[in-house]
Amino acid sequence: MSKTSVKKGTVLLAQPFMLDSNFGRAAVLITDHHKSEGTVGFILNKKLNTGINTLIDDFPEIESEVYIGGPVAKDTLHYIHDRGDILDNSIPVVDGVYWGGDYDKLKFLIKAQLIKPHNIKFFLGYSGWSAGQLDEELQYGSWMLSDMDANYAFRQKPRDLWRLITRNKGGHFTVIAEMPKANHLN
After folding, report:
1. Which of 17, 27, 44, 122 lies deepest, with the highest CB count within 10 Å?
2. In the prediction, which pLDDT does 3 show?
3. Nearest by Cα to 67 from 6, 7, 154, 146
């Protein structure tokens, strides 16, 4: 994947020594990208220590953790899931991954146990870039790009995700994946 091939379904992997505390070792799924309008995504591997039922009183019971989607609009709730076949108004992101959908129908599907914790990931806030901003960050070398696999979102442990996706890129990325977080250890 070239440095400028960001599109819906791309995963941004923070370079190992990125200093921005919001994105250190982050794996960000891009859910929307338009050169003229900007980019939206969600950090897949920064889990909060709370469940969705702790945050929303009238939400059906589901054992689902909440993740930090990014530093923008931290008071908004978003979700990705693999049930676009039954959740109306879901936006396809990449094969097996959908963004959003009808909120009331989501609650119904959770109550009916047609959406379970392994089908959905909730986020507070999102990651956003204005038009051209992400391209500048890519040219500066802040991010590595990878293709998305639905298993990254729904079947992998968040703490291992950055390393796993980086390693899966192959070649010299297998070495980068094993770099310790503290640069004085290199």
Report:
1. 27
2. 44
3. 154
Span 98-107, average pLDDT:
98
Separation of CA 160 from chain center = 14
Report how far residue 57's alpha carbon sits from residue 51's, in angstroms, rounded to the nearest whole number. 11
Distance CA 106, CA 109 (A): 5
Q: Domain boundaries in the chain?
A: 10-165
User: Over the stretch 119-152, which tens digit does the pLDDT of each residue have?
Assistant: 999 999 999 999 999 999 999 989 999 999 999 9
Q: Are strands 120-129 and 65-68 parallel, antiparallel or unpaired?
A: parallel
| Residue appearing with tokens 């676009």 | 84
pTM tops 0.90: yes
Fold classification of 10-165 (topology level): VC0467-like (3.40.1740)
Alpha-carbon dihedral sign for residues 102, 75, 99, 49: negative
119-151 CB burial, b ≥16 within 10 A, e <16: bbbbbbbbbbbeeeebeebbeeebbbbbebbbe
| Inter-residue long-range contacts of 94-100, CB under 8 Å, 24+ positions, other chains counted | 94/8, 94/9, 94/147, 94/148, 94/150, 95/150, 96/150, 97/9, 97/29, 97/148, 97/150, 97/153, 99/31, 99/32
Residue-level pLDDT at 182:
60
